[in-house]
Amino acid sequence: MTFFSLGFRPFFLLAGVGGFTMMLLWIITLSTGYSWPGVANIITWHRHEMLFGYTGAVIAGFLLTAVRNWTGKSTPDGKPLAALAIVWIAARLVPLVSEQQLLYVAVDMLFWVGLFASLWHALITAVVRNRIFLLLVGLLGTAAALSHWSILAPDNQHLSYVGAYLGLDIILIIMLVMGGRVIPFFIQRGLQKAEQARIPWLEKGLPPLLVIMLATNLLLANSLWSALINFILGCWLLPNLWRWHDSAIWRKPLLWSLYLAYAWLVLGLFLRGGGALGWVSPYLGIHALTVGGIGLLTLSMMSRVALGHTGRALEPAGLTVLALVLMMLAAVVRVFLASSQGLLAYQISAVLWMLALLLFVIVYLPILIKPRPDGKAG
């Protein structure tokens, strides 16, 4: 069946539908106070589902597809891929329909174990720079488990926060590592430019800084040291925004969206550093990283990867461009207006987010479920 021929097909569609639905349920609950059977804390649920549900689906779809190209080895397709997708769906549905919270935890963990196992064969013998993604997926599953700690131990909320923020940092590492690889490559190919000269010290210095950031935010959260490493990492990434910029990218939606998503990640690091020092609300940095960075980057990557892997020209539909603009506006409203407009800003940002993903689903549903127009496999 075409739909289960490669990981990006089911999981990108699930990310679009799930990201829309989970945001809708969040804003309904926030606005009306309605409670769901298996959701004891709506903020904890929202945090978990956006990080490990929505973003987890995008990461699954991307890695199950990209790892084949990196290693030349197969990743699950057909029934095994369908089973993994069903487990992801079940994990999202269980807390909405059942009071059995431990079942929610178990099914959610089954997805992460399944994803790890799905990538193991192809990545365990791969080169180190690709094998690192096996470690990151394992850490992301561990963070998802910690995020559930408020269910496993209701009197101990701290580990639930630790899991969520650990998950955010791991996702940030994945986005920065992949962004550093693909954004300059896509810009070079999209603009038919010569390959940029690499800066070895800039590239080699990033992994140690990311590890330090992960450890510092985990062990010394909201401290001077946490602020310092976020500032340093933000400064370290700034040269990439200068190096990758070309005025021609603003005529290519699948390029400017990637570029601006990376810029949101950099801004988010600076805002998170300021939040650790009490200069700004800590939620500004979090939502600059999540809505602006992760939201725009995942939407842009899904849009491009789906076109490329189905043999279509890398020219987005008008509705896709509108979706990218709406996601950008969702970030602007959530980061810059929420402190003054409160619930109204949350609602507007949520609606913009939902519209962006709804447009993605409308445009890409036929692309994801139909065979490639050139008749090739994939």
Write up this protein.
This protein is mostly helical and 378 residues long. The protein has one domain (2-369): Cytochrome C Oxidase, Chain A (Up-down Bundle), CATH 1.20.210.10. It has 14 helices and no strands. The protein has helices at 8-32, 42-71, 78-97, 101-123, 128-147, 149-152, 158-191, 200-219, 224-244, 253-276, 282-309, 318-336, 338-341, 343-369. The chain is globular. The mean pLDDT is 94.
Provide keyphrases for this structure.
378 residues, mainly alpha, Cytochrome C Oxidase, Chain A, 14 helices
List the SSEs and their pairings.
Blueprint lengths: L7 H25 L9 H30 L6 H20 L3 H23 L4 H20 L1 H4 L5 H34 L8 H20 L4 H21 L8 H24 L5 H28 L8 H19 L1 H4 L1 H27 L9
What is the CATH class designation?
Mainly Alpha
Percent in helix: over 70%
Could you tell me the mean pLDDT?
94
N-to-C order of helices and strands: HHHHHHHHHHHHHH
CATH superfamily: Cytochrome c oxidase-like, subunit I domain
Secondary structure class reads mainly alpha
| Biggest sheet overview | none
Beta content: under 5%
